[in-house]
C-alpha cells in the first residue's frame, strides 16, 4: 500500500505542468521505498530472473510516480539501490546492469527502446516519466566494457557503476551520474576515475545530482552548490541511521540548511537495517520528512519548493561559524574532562552539572561553548558537551570538527556518545557554538524519539550560534554543529575494496 503525506497548506499547481515558462515554485516528491530484495547468492542469476525482480520493484515505484503526478508533482526521487537492493558481489550484480549512455545522445528510451541494445529498465523508467509527465529520478547500475588498452580496466573486462539517472517529463534521459564516493561495503561497484558534476536545467530551477555517502564530500556535493550554483539537489540514498550524529533526516536537513539549497532525499526503507528517514528540505525549513521504525511500508511525500531559493526574501544569510565562539573567553569553572567515542572518533567531553550553566570543552584547535537552561532536569539523565577535531578513519576518511551536546546513554559517564532513544529533561534555552576552522558546518537538533526540532524553536545566528528562540522546552537528545574541513581530507573519502592499479 502506498500512503501519502502532503501538507494541507500546499497549493497544487497542476495546471502549470505543461507550461514551459519559468516557474517560481514547483512540487517535489520523494518516495521512501521498502525495496524487495533478491535472494542472497554468489552465483549470478539469469538476466530474466534479475529483470523479474527489478520489475517487481518498479511496479511499486510506478504506483508512487502515478500518485505523485496526480497530486501535481513536477519531479519525484526514488532511493539508491531502490530497484534491486544491496546484497551483491561484483559478479552477482552483473545481470542487473544496463549500459547507460551519456545524456548528450538525446534519447527517449520509451520512444526508441532498442537504440542502445537491451535496456528494459531504462525503457520502463522513461515511460513512467513520459506517461505521467513528471521528472523521474532513479538509481540503477551502469556497465561499461573496457579492455587492455585501458591499464585500469578490471580483470573481468568491465566497469560497474552505481548510477543515478534522471528522465524528464517527456521521458528523455537528461542526467547520468556515477557515484564517486562509494561506501566501503559497496564491493559490487567500481570507483569512477573522476568526480562528475552533473546538472540540468528545468523551468523550475537548476538541479544537481549525487548519491548517499557523497554528502560528506567536497566533490561533487559542495562543488555543485558553490561552483555550479544549483538550486536543488536530487539525492537517492540507502542510509542506515547511526545515532547520535548520523541519522538521515537530521543530517540531510542540516546539509540543506548549511549549503542553502533544496534537498530532495529519498531513502530506502528497511527497519532491521535502520534504514528510514526521507524528506524534502528547503534552506530555511524542513518541508516534510518521514521517519518510521514501526512499519515495513513505503511512504510518498510531497511539498512545494521555491524554484530559485537565492532570489527569495526568505533565503538565509551566510553564517560566520566561528565569529561568536572566537569573541568570548572560554568558560572555566572547575570542569573535568573525560573521553568518549562517537562512531569510532574519540571526543573530549564535559558533564553539564547544573540546571543552567556555561561550559567550554576543547579538542586540538576546536573549542565548543554551551550556555543553557534546563527545566525539569531529571536525576537519572546525564548530558555532556563534547568536542572532536580530527580525521575520521573508519568506513571512509574525512576530516571533522564537531561540537555536540547530547544525552549520555546511562548515568555512567563512560556511556556518553553511545546511542540513546529518548530524553525527558527539557532545555528551555541553549546556545551552542565553536571556534571552527571551516565554513562548512551542518547544524542539527534531534529530539526524543528521533524527531526533528521544529524551526520555530531554534535558529542559527549569523555569528554561528545554534540557539533556542521560543523558550519552549525541548526534550533534546542531541544537538550538534558538524563541521567538515575539506582541505585536510585525503584525495578520496571512500576506501575501495579493491585498488585499481
Ligand atoms: C527466494 O527464494 C525462495 C525460496 O527458494 C523463493 O520462493 C523466492 O521466490 C525467491 N525470491 C526471489 C526474489 O527470487
Ligand atoms: C579495445 O581495444 C581496442 C584497441 O586495442 C579498441 O579499438 C576498442 O575500442 C577497445 N574496446 C573497448 C570496449 O574499450
Ligand atoms: C532488510 O535488509 C536485510 C539485510 O540486507 C535483509 O536480510 C532483510 O530481509 C530486509 N528486510 C526486508 C523486510 O526486506
Ligand atoms: C553564563 O554566562 C553569561 C555571560 O557570559 C552570564 O550572564 C550568565 O549568568 C552565566 N550563566 C550561568 C548559569 O553561569
From TrEMBL:
GO terms for biological process: pantothenate metabolic process. Keywords: Glycoprotein, Hydrolase, Signal. The keyword Signal applies. The active site is at 80 (proton acceptor), 179 (proton donor), 212 (nucleophile). It holds the Pfam family Vanin_C. Residues 31-307 form the CN hydrolase domain. GO terms for molecular function: pantetheine hydrolase activity. Belongs to the carbon-nitrogen hydrolase superfamily. BTD/VNN family. This is Vascular non-inflammatory molecule 3. It comes from Heterocephalus glaber. The gene is LOC101724572.
Amino acid at each position: 500500500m502506498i500512503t501519502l503525506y502532503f501538507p494541507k497548506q500546499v497549493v497544487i499547481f497542476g495546471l502549470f505542468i505543461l507550461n514551459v515558462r519559468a516557474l517560481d515554485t514547483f512540487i517535489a516528491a520523494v518516495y521512501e521505498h521498502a525495496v524487495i530484495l533478491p535472494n542472497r547468492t554468489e552465483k549470478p542469476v539469469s538476466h530474466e530472473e534479475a529483470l523479474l525482480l527489478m520489475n517487481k520493484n518498479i511496479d511499486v515505484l510506478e504506483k508512487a510516480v502515478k500518485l505523485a503526478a496526480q497530486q501535481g508533482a513536477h519531479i519525484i526521487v526514488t532511493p539508491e539501490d531502490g530497484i534491486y537492493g544491496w546484497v551483491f558481489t561484483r559478479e552477482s550484480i552483473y545481470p542487473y546492469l544496463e549500459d547507460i549512455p551519456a545524456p548528450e545522445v538525446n534519447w527517449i528510451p520509451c520512444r526508441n527502446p532498442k537504440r542502445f541494445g537491451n535496456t528494459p529498465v531504462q525503457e520502463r523508467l522513461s515511460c513512467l516519466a513520459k506517461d505521467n509527465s513528471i521528472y523521474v529520478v532513479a538509481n540503477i547500475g551502469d556497465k561499461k566494457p573496457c579492455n587492455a588498452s585501458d591499464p585500469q580496466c578490471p580483470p573481468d573486462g568491465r566497469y560497474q557503476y552505481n548510477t543515478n539517472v534522471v528522465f524528464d517529463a517527456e521521458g528523455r534521459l537528461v542526467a547520468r551520474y556515477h557515484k564517486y564516493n562509494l561506501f566501503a561495503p559497496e564491493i559490487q561497484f567500481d570507483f569512477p576515475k573522476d568526480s562528475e558534476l552533473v546538472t540540468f536545467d528545468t523551468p523550475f530551477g537548476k538541479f544537481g545530482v549525487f548519491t548517499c555517502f557523497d554528502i560528506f564530500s567536497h566533490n561533487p556535493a559542495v562543488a555543485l552548490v558553490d561552483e555550479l550554483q544549483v538550486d536543488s539537489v536530487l539525492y537517492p540514498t540507502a542510509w542506515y541511521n547511526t545515532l547520535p550524529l548520523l541519522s538521515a533526516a537530521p543530517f540531510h536537513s542540516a546539509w540543506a540548511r548549511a549549503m542553502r539549497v533544496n534537498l530532495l532525499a529519498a531513502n530506502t526503507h528497511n527497519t532491521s537495517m535502520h534504514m528510514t528517514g526521507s524528506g524534502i528540505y528547503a534552506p530555511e525549513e524542513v518541508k516534510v520528512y518521514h521517519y518510521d521504525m514501526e512499519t515495513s511500508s513505503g511512504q510518498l511525500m510531497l511539498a512545494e519548493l521555491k524554484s530559485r531559493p537565492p532570489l527569495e526574501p526568505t533565503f538565509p544569510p551566510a553564517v560566520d561559524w566561528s565569529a561568536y565562539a572566537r569573541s568570548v573567553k572560554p568558560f572555566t569553572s572547575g570542569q573535568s574532562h573525560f573521553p568518549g567515542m562517537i562512531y569510532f572518533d574519540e571526543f573530549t567531553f564535559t558533564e553539564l552539572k547544573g540546571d543552567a550553566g556555561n561550559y567550554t570543552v576543547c579538542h586540538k584547535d576546536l573549542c565548543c561553548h554551551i550556555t543553557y537552561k534546563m527545566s525539569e532536569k531529571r536525576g537519572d539523565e546525564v548530558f555532556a558537551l563534547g568536542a572532536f577535531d580530527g580525521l575520521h578513519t573508519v568506513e571512509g576518511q574525512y576530516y571533522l570538527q564537531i561540537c555536540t551536546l547530547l544525552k549520555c546513554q546511562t548515568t555512567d559517564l563512560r556511556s556518553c556518545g553511545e546511542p540513546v532513544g529518548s530524553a525527558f529533561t527539557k532545555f528551555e534555552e541553549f546556545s551552542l557554538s565553536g571556534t571552527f576552522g571551516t565554513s562548512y558546518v551542518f547544524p542539527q537538533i534531534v529530539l526524543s524519539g528521533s524527531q526533528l526540532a521544529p524551526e520555530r524553536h531554534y535558529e542559527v545566528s549569523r555569528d554561528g550560534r545554534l540557539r533556542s528562540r521560543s523558550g519552549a522546552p525541548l526534550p533534546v537528545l542531541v544537538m550538534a554543529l558538524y563541521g567538515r574541513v575539506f582541505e585536510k581530507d585525503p584525495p578520496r573519502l571512500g576506501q575501495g575494496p579493491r585498488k585499481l592499479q
